[in-house]
Amino acid sequence: MHELDSLTVAPTDWVDIARAHKTQGFDYLDFLSVRELDSGEFTLTVHLLDPTNERRIMLEGTWATEDGAQIPSLSEVFAGARWHELEASELFGLDFVLPNGSVLTSGGNEPFIASEPALRSDYALAPRLDNEWPGTNEPGLAPDHPRRKRKRAVPGNPATWEPAHD
User: Fold this and answer.
1) Which of 63, 91, 117, 131 has the fewest beta carbons closer than 10 A?
2) Contacts of 102 (CB under 8 A, 6+ apart)
């Protein structure tokens, strides 16, 4: 595999640079990734492939979202970009401006987007809270039986997510 080139892209040129690379043979969007910086900004990375000539390139752009910046969607250039942007929207709360002018956001204005950002790390999944975690009780014993196992937290859930069960 050939060397990986990297290009830093200004937010205003995001879609145009991606389109230009597609016309140069980079017609396969491998992934779109987001990294949150300590400054509160977000860096988007897009990995593009040219399968014919075995070339690849990374495009990176940085957005300051506290200013209300919206990220232009790459879905008009790469059809598969919308799925990656939906994931980034739900994980990081980013807003992507679609080609028709609407905004793909984790707020739920698109029909296939949940009203709650279920992929966000600070979102408690209802089934984890509502169901007894396996191993909490001995099989076949009533919840008030004296040989009941001690109550344990659900692995991966912060204490603030735990339901008020007694």
Assistant:
1) 131
2) 109, 110
